[in-house]
Amino acid sequence: MPTAMLLHAHPDDEVFANFGWAYDLASRGYDVIGVIATGGEANELHATASLREARTRRIEKYERALDMLGASAWTWLDASAGWVDAPSGPSLAGAAPDQLRVGVERLLTQHRPDIVLTVGSDGLTGHPDHVAIARALSTATNRGSVPEGVWGARLRADDVRAGGVLVGSHAREVQVGSGRVVGTTARLVARDVRSSAAARRRALDVYREGLGTDSLESIVSGADRIGDSIVLRGVFDATGWGQEYYEAVSPDHGSTAARQNAAC
Known about the structure:
Elements: E1 3-8, H1 13-27, E2 31-36, H2 51-69, E3 73-76, H3 97-111, E4 115-119, H4 128-139, E5 150-154, H5 157-168, E6 189-192, H6 197-207, H7 216-221, H8 228-239, E7 243-248, H9 256-262
Parallel strand pairs: 1-2, 1-4, 2-3, 4-5
Antiparallel strand pairs: 5-7, 6-7
Pfam families: PIG-L
Protein name: PIG-L family deacetylase
Keywords: Zinc
């Protein structure tokens, strides 16, 4: 059975970045495994002051989302590192690059995935933790051993602008997003992910009630701030939920046949 690895900084990155392609791989018989570096605690600290409880809450959501995606299991990038997504504690972005690279190399050696899906060189959203993950994969000395390639999700600049306009049409003098989500004008590989759209909407709901299935207008009007997750929802709506875009994390990512298989 071929193996697909989803490698990310936080729980929920797999839904925003790679859900469609991963869903397709699972439906085609790939054993899909998730890898995260932190527990995504920041998104749960509004509900609890306990970092441990925040991690537990987020991991429960991660496991539910992976079930919807068709993944079989998940693991930590480096369980001994103690990285957290929180105002205090060791951060992924602050980790030594060599530590991240070695962790990635260890995972690739251990699991020998046929394909790896992650975020592109800009981290998809510009988040420093995301960028650190993309950099670690790009510098891993054994990344060339992945037969079907290492692929990073990107957004097109035109789609980001369209999504921002759509979100902004429902906002009233409120800042929209962090400003880090900008997209790219570079040529990307497109994946048709229409078959996974409904499941992706439900998976977004796991992380934030209604984020995938409520109307964008109701999400914006009910939010105390317009974060990047809402910006990405706007991008999905603006583009029809039908495609994901990718760049090869390294130019020697795999065979010509693998590249042709990835292209639409």
